[in-house]
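Example record used in the benchmark description.
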Amino acid sequence: MVYLILELLETGLAPKDIIRDYYPALTEEDIKACLSYAASLVKDQEFVPFEETA
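Model output (structure tokens):
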């Protein structure tokens, strides 16, 4: 379910909108926990951006 919350946040929805429109059983703390969990997964990962081609 974490990826679903992240995708909704990516679209620009606010946590309150996600709770109201999609997951009324969640709290804002639950959404913060999703972000914290996702951050912990990528914390020690190296990011290598793709080169843009013309």
